[in-house]
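Form 7-S
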Amino acid sequence: MNDNTPVNIDLDNPEFQCAWNLLQNTHKSVFLTGKAGSGKSTFLKYICKNTKKKNIVLAPT
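Output:
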């Protein structure tokens, strides 16, 4: 996920905010799933670029 492509994400989306808060404010692991084109890779890129937490991405597309 070391791609330098700009990440275009809707920061006002309630589902995004819920997931972001879970990742930023807990020590829980996340298993991210979804249909093709649902934004999984975009979300992962955003997390990797914007969190100060250590993260590991397994099996990225």
